[in-house]
Amino acid sequence: MINLKINDIDVRVPEGSTILEAAREINIEIPTLCHLNLHELNYVNKDANCRVCLVQWGNGLVPACNTLVREGMEIRTDTLKVVKSRKVNIELLLSNHPKDCLVCDRNGDCELQTLAADNNIKNIRFKGNRINFPIDNSSLSIIRDPNKCILCKRCETMCNQVQTVGTLTDVGRGFDTVVGTNFMQPMYKTNCTFCGQCLSVCPTGALTEVNEINEVYNALSDNEKTVIVQTAPAVRVALGEEFGMEAGSIVTGKMVTALRNLGFDYVFDTDFAADITSIEEAHELVHRLQNGGTLPILTSCCPSWVNFIEINFPDMLDIPSTCMSPHEMFGALAKTYFAEKIGKDPKDIVVVSVMPCVAKKYESKRPELVSQEGYSDVDYVVTTRELASMIRDMSLDFKNLESSDFDRLMGESTGAGVNFGSTGGVLESALRTAYNIITGKDLHQVEFKELKDLTGIKESEIKVGDYELRAAVSSGLGNARKLLNRVKKGEAHYDIIEIMACPGGCINGGGQPHHHGDINVIKKRMESIHTEDRNKHIRRSYENPEAIKLYDEYLGEPGGEKAHKLLHTSYENNDTHEYF
Question: Please, what is the angle between helix 111-118 and helix 80-95, to 10°?
Answer without folding.
Answer: 140
